Amino acid sequence: MQVLWVVVTAIAALLAAVGVLFVVAGLKDVQRARRTLSWPTAPGTIRSAEEFERRLPVAGPAEPRIHYEAVIQYEYTVGRVLVGTSTLRVDPAAYTNPEHAQSVLRRYPPGQAVRVAYNPADPTDAVLEPGAHAPSFVRLGVGLGLVALGACIPLVARWFAARL
Q1: What are the pLDDT digits (tens) for 39-80?
Q2: Phi and psi of 72, rounded to 5°?
């Protein structure tokens, strides 16, 4: 019984440690995304908007997973320098539903004038949609879940041990 308790504790500690790493990375993601809200903006123009389809292999005979991404090419001027990039937002924007990518493409038709938020320290680092969005919180949420799971496993194990 003592060996089992050591194994349970080790698994719980490992889950919690990995969770803490995810929480730290997630907090950095959210902080970087929120920082884009204070970036200066410049007028820009959408050059192209295309849907990119990425097939992800899966094991066995199952169909591959397909992710759809809206790739928006735009250019903007900072000072006297014309800059071009394709970053929509800080967090990834790949979807399993093609309609999500299509809705992004409809918001940014080629030729449309836009405001581009750019990093003043590196004007080539820019986004069309500043701020934190749902994907910004994924690693933070996974990390908190792992920490909670790591904390709960010993409690559940004690509860079961008391019932035996």
Answers
A1: 999 999 999 888 888 877 777 777 778 888 888 889 998 988
A2: -105, 115
